[in-house]
Give the backbone structure.
Amino acid sequence: IELPSIRNAETQSISDIIKWDDQTLWLASPAGLRKLTYRVEPDGSPEFQYQYTCKTKTGFWPSRLIQINDSTVFVRGRTNTTTFATFNVHSREFQYHQLADSLLINQVDLLHNDTMLLCIRNKGIYLYALASSSLNLVPWKFEDSTMTVEKPVFLDITRLQNDHYAISTENYGLILYDHQRHHFELIPTGTVANTNIVYDVNEDAKHNLWIQTSNQLLHFETNTGIISKCNLANAFKGQHPAYFMREGKELFATFE
């Protein structure tokens, strides 16, 4: 579908898409949130129809969308910024939230109800309650009490099937977070791949993790704790790879 041009060509980019319940898609673009409706034709092909764009305030570019409930979308701005928003799909209104200048948001995900999990660059993990606008730091707590995390840079966050979170970092490899116990586990990728840069994590049907570092695809067995290389002829050496797992059995990848 060709979307209407707004302001300039740069605003045509689409950074995220979420599917709503009533055959509606919401698209994140620098111009704001764009609403599309669709239906599936008898031959199985989709037919899309552009509805309208809800523009964001100047300087706020939506980059990720998370559905909170039946009426509210969480809207993250560009990475390393301090502002995010909530959007009401019925009233078409945005409510903006501003953090302190030193709290740069790398990644975000929904924890439960209206509480967001914020990964703050060079700081750590925070919980933000949307209703009360309260922000609380989650202390680093590892089995090894001497383990510390200083100035982390977060590249991605993935919710696992057991409700834990796999947090990809630029300098600490992979960190697993159990929010019920407020406990962290460090998966050291550097010993296997000679790098602690982790771009992405996917979980398969057996709950094992496939970890893409800057130079190797790794496999982590959650039951045994064994981490190993996947020695592939095409070792995914492209920049910023993106993955998705289909039915827990097939892993697809694309990269720049």
Summary: The chain has a mean pLDDT of 88. The two ends are 23 Å apart (CA to CA).
